[in-house]
Design brief:
Blueprint lengths: L9 H13 L2 H8 L3 H15 L4 E4 L2 E4 L1 H24 L8 E5 L1 H18 L5 E5 L11 E5 L8 E6 L2 E6 L1 H7 L12 E4 L9 H7 L9 E4 L2 H9 L5 E4 L4 H5 L4 E2 L5 E2 L4 E5 L5 H13 L1
Parallel strand pairs: 3-4, 3-5, 8-9
Antiparallel strand pairs: 1-2, 5-13, 6-13, 7-10, 7-11, 7-12
Helix pairs in contact: 1-2, 1-3, 1-4, 2-3
InterPro entries: LysR-type_TF_proteobact-type, LysR_HTH_N, LysR_subst-bd, WH-like_DNA-bd_sf, WH_DNA-bd_sf
GO molecular function: DNA binding; DNA-binding transcription factor activity
Protein name: LysR family transcriptional regulator
Length: 292
């Protein structure tokens, strides 16, 4: 019988999604508890099936091709829809006290370390994350984190923090391109996050706020902020950073502020407390707001 869906190997698609999200075959293999060779084999089989290259193999990692980025967006949306359905079907109340929904970037860069700190104080309260980059999908959760101004009459919101937006890169990148002043960035390679679903400040917005013209240097486009940050660490270009989110990357020296100029973020990060939130969820919400 003909298959109802025109799909490649599900295993290969899962390997591809993990490699694309991590911008690394090695990290994808660690996440999936397999060898990098197994991941590489699955992706090669997928590329053969599709008749195109999905990654550009670099010495220090991999980078999505245009077709690879297109496929990654589609797979990510599909997996998030499946995850949404599974989450709603599961009865998590017996094992999870608090469920919080947020994006990949906020989870990785800011929330996960916060949860670890919370557990040291309240080890009996379990906190589960739902990771999704699709706006508007909240599902069954007690709390959710949002970037932007809260809509009126849409429940209870609490402000977490409001960043300043800085230009980030590596010291090697700054030295190679002679970046000292903000004007030097106008002709330097820049990494742009192209995601129409998120109202992030762009490089053009950033330069305009500083009274500067649009940049003229080479542009590299990615559809995921975490991939953009990794590309910056690989000396591909400069990337915009929300200093509250990328604080650990700067502290560890993986990225540095390239110039002194910054602009305030046009919006803050807020915590939404959903009507189903329990007393334990509200305890975590209170702690999270204070810690921010």
């Amino acid at each position: 019988m003909p298959r109802p869906y025109d799909l490649s190997s599900i295993t290969a698609l899962i390997c591809f999604e993990a490699a694309a999200r991590n911008a690394s075959f090695k990290k994808a293999a660690q996440e999936m508890n397999v060898t990098p060779a197994a991941v590489s084999h699955q992706i090669k089989a997928l590329e053969t099936d599709l008749g195109c290259n999905l990654f550009l193999r670099r010495s220090r990692g991999v980078e999505l091709t245009e077709k690879g980025a297109f496929l990654f967006i589609a797979i990510r949306r599909g997996f998030e829809t499946i995850s949404e359905a599974v989450t709603q079907i599961r009865d998590r109340q017996e094992t999870v006290d608090v469920t919080i929904r947020t994006t990949t970037a906020v989870s990785s860069l800011w929330l996960t370390p916060k949860i670890s700190a919370f557990w040291k104080i309240h080890p009996a309260i379990t906190v589960s994350q739902i990771i999704s980059d699709v706006p508007g999908m909240t599902g069954r959760c007690d709390l959710s984190i949002h970037y932007g101004n809260p809509p009126e009459n849409d429940g209870e919101y609490r402000k977490l923090f409001r960043d300043r937006i800085v230009a980030l890169g590596t010291p090697a990148f700054a030295a190679e391109h002679g970046i000292i002043h903000v004007g030097d960035l106008l002709k330097a390679p820049l990494i742009h996050t192209s995601n129409e679903e998120t109202d992030w400040t762009t490089w053009s917005d950033w330069f305009l706020a500083l009274g500067r013209p649009a940049p003229k240097g080479r542009s590299f486009y990615v559809n995921n902020y975490m991939i953009g940050l990794q590309a910056a660490q690989d000396d591909v270009g400069a990337v915009l950073g929300w200093d509250g989110l990328v604080e650990n990357l700067i502290r560890e020296g993986r990225l540095v502020q390239l110039v002194a100029e910054t602009i305030p973020s046009p919006a803050a990060f807020h915590l939404k407390v959903h009507p189903r939130a329990t007393s334990r969820a509200r305890l975590f919400a209170d702690w999270l707001v204070k810690s921010a």
